[in-house]
Design brief:
With 492 residues, the chain is of the alpha+beta class. Helix content is 61%, strand content 13%. It contains twelve helices and nine strands. α2 packs across α5, α6 runs antiparallel to α8 and α8 packs parallel to α11. It is extended and about 105 Å long.
Length: 492
């Protein structure tokens, strides 16, 4: 059993890893293309991201390998021979269950110790690659501030010819604000062969520069400026310092997907304490405030009453004693104070929601380190009995079934994760929902496979519909026959 299972497991594991790696390349091909990266840098990036995909690829590989192994055994009647000799399905699965238990432990240790390091190295390297050539990141419709001292915006960009339209360049090298700006209808951009500078050739544009006034009092400044028009102008922007420079390890050190279980628990506890303190600080005055009823009894929010011996303050009588003009002023101020309070509560509520969402992100990653290893066990108890029921080996049918179950698991996990981040459900319930749903399915399939179920046999369902058709046929035609018999008896 181990020999039959390990081969498909290794094969499917690397196939899934390659698929996930191709998905990554498809997402970040624009950030990698044209950067002049060496083979060593590309190999390091791919290896680090491949390691980060291992916990996700392992459950799907186990599902596919279990389907293939037991499907092949069922297709060649090996399961039938084993069962006829008195060996149950659970006994056949026993050595593989020990192997899956070992893989679950390895997956957890990998997620807890290796995955944070590989995520950190992969994300830092990708971040450094994105900064290497700022001209590639010049996107249409938004300002680009990657080049130190310049803020550049283009309306449209042709990726083939590098033609730029609607160019705006702010020169901030003097660090005095927007005192120098250049606009152009169109232009072209290219990098020098030694990659030390970016040359922008601009057409039909204008340059505006404010002239600094020296030894002039602030109230006497006239803010002179200089305006130049040009048909063609060449702007050379230095790219020194934009070679691939490796960032420090502390750059993403506190990010949730770069921490292990103990570190995540520490951050979650710290953020929880910070949130409780912030909540009491922001809403404590509203929670602990007293509500006046117009009598000599004060009620607090908890409903406890306290006698008040001081002079009763009646705002109604005070307001009715004011003049009409003063009443308008009082009402206007009251409305203004109410609006300010509502705005304060709204902004504070949004801030607290952001803190909750940030904290939930750490709780999600904490549970992921346990959910993904446990998913290996769940998928094995789905794949092994399902392969014994389907009795189809190879890569065709098992692949289709595996993708179906994996998509169901992935959709449930992603939907529940969104609910957790929005604080609609608890972190435990949300992150373990997919396991709670699919584990009973695996138990049900194991029970059916142990009792030689025919739930995947097409003839079983065809016979079921034939029985329904025969039942309806008997009801309809026997009912008509009884009606005709009654009519014949009446006629006689």
């Amino acid at each position: 059993m181990l020999k039959s299972f390990i081969g498909p497991l290794i094969l499917t594991f690397f196939i899934v890893l390659i698929i996930l790696l191709l998905q990554f390349l498809w997402m970040y091909v624009d950030d990698l293309a044209g950067k002049g990266l060496s083979f060593k840098i590309l190999a390091e990036l791919l290896i680090q991201f491949t390691l980060s995909f291992v916990p996700t690829a392992l459950p799907l590989a186990i599902l596919l390998a279990a389907l293939m192994t037991f499907g092949n055994m069922g297709e060649f009647s090996e399961l039938t021979a084993l069962k006829s000799s008195g060996i149950s399905l659970m006994r056949i699965m026993r050595p593989l269950m020990f192997l899956i238990g070992i893989l679950v432990i390895i997956s957890f240790l990998f997620s807890n110790y290796v995955l944070p390091y590989s995520n950190r190295q992969a994300r830092m390297l990708l971040y450094d690659i994105k900064r290497k050539r700022p001209d590639i990141n010049l996107q249409a419709g938004s300002f680009n501030n990657d080049i130190d001292g310049f803020s550049i915006k283009v309306t449209s960009k042709d990726p083939v010819t590098n033609r730029l339209d609607g160019i705006i360049i702010y020169d901030h090298r003097d660090k005095k604000g927007n005192i120098s700006v250049t606009t152009a209808d169109s232009g072209y951009m290219k990098i020098t062969p030694d990659e030390t500078a970016m040359i922008m050739t601009l057409y039909n544009g204008k340059s505006f520069t404010e002239i600094e006034e020296k030894n002039v009092a602030p109230d006497q400044r006239k803010y002179p400026s200089r305006k130049d028009e040009f048909r063609e102008q060449t702007v050379v922007i230095s790219l020194s310092g934009f070679d691939l420079q490796r960032s420090s390890d502390d750059l993403f050190r506190s990010t949730s997907w770069m921490l292990n279980l103990s570190q995540l628990s520490f951050y979650i506890d710290s953020m929880n304490n910070e949130y409780n303190g912030k909540y009491y600080q922001q809403f404590g005055e509203f929670r602990d405030s007293k509500v006046y009823t117009g009598k000599n009894i004060m009620y607090d929010v908890d409903g406890e009453s306290t006698e008040k011996d001081s002079v009763i303050f009646n705002p109604g009588e005070l307001y009715s004693g004011l003049k009409s003009y003063d009443k308008k002023i009082v009402v206007a101020r009251a409305l203004e104070n109410a609006k300010e309070a509502a705005s304060f509560l709204s902004m504070t509520t949004e801030t607290m929601k952001m803190k909750i969402r940030f904290m939930k992100r750490y709780e999600v990653d904490w549970h992921k380190k346990l959910v993904l290893p446990f998913g290996c066990l769940v998928f094995f108890f789905i794949g092994a009995p399902l392969g014994a029921i389907v009795r189809k080996g190879g890569l065709g049918t098992p692949t289709v079934i595996s993708i179906l179950f994996f998509v169901i698991w992935y959709v449930i996990s992603m939907s529940a994760e969104k609910f957790v981040e929005e604080n609609l459900i608890s972190s435990f319930a949300g992150m373990w929902t997919s396991s709670f749903i699919l584990l009973p399915v695996g138990i049900f399939l194991t029970y059916k496979a142990s009792h030689d179920s025919v739930i995947m046999n097409v003839d079983t369902y065809l016979q079921f519909f034939r029985n329904i058709k025969d039942f309806l046929f008997r009801i309809i035609f026997q009912g008509k026959r009884s009606k005709y018999d009654i009519i014949n008896i009446t006629d006689e």
